[in-house]
Amino acid sequence: MAVEETKADPFQITARRIVYENAWITVEHQDVVRPDGKPGIYGIVRFANRAVGVLPIDDQGYVWLVGQYRRPLAAWSWEMPEGGVPHDEDLMAGARRELEEETGLRAAHLIRVLDLDLSNSVSDETATCFVAYGLSQGLAAPEGTEILSQRRIHFSKLMEEVVTGEIRDSLTVATVYRTYHLVHTNQLPVVLSQAMLAMPEGD
């Protein structure tokens, strides 16, 4: 029997309180009545900013990645430039800012390719991802909390690393797959698509 679709919240909130808050997140504790009628609890992490990610692709089909240590996972991560955009800032403007801050690159063209809900069982964080091309040099200005490395990798090689699991960052993985789809459905400039699919000799 098919489960009836409902858009109403099946939990009844009986009490709520903020248990932790800083400039980036708020953790809310809720006392609830569960869908089965029993008492329960629920925790929600609310984010102050929206996440953005930018996959910058140059005219030769190479992608610029940034590498940094991700403390929650205690692991190094290669990923596309990403950051937070306040709710009162234009998403595309925020994406351009993050791209230049982390890589020193500016983009003549940005294409919005993905909108995602992240960890939607415990947080309200959303993300919007872009493909950037028509790159030129700007001025990098990483935040004081960031120690970033840069890596220029051909899109074909990046696709391999996504498939094998070497690249694990969720926004990067989703955007690379989406961009691969755009190439094969002729939604990117032909010359750029050809460069992205043609692995240069020696790489």
TrEMBL record:
GO terms for molecular function: hydrolase activity. It comes from Candidatus Phycosocius bacilliformis. Keywords: Hydrolase. Its cofactor is Mg(2+). This is GDP-mannose pyrophosphatase. It catalyses: GDP-alpha-D-mannose + H2O = alpha-D-mannose 1-phosphate + GMP + 2 H(+). The keyword rRNA processing does not apply. Signal peptide: none annotated. Gene3D superfamilies: Nucleoside Triphosphate Pyrophosphohydrolase (3.90.79.10). InterPro entries: NUDIX_hydrolase-like_dom_sf (IPR015797), NUDIX_hydrolase_CS (IPR020084), NUDIX_hydrolase_dom (IPR000086). Residues 47-175 form the Nudix hydrolase domain. The keyword Translocase does not apply. GO terms for biological process: nucleoside phosphate metabolic process; ribose phosphate metabolic process. Belongs to the Nudix hydrolase family. NudK subfamily.
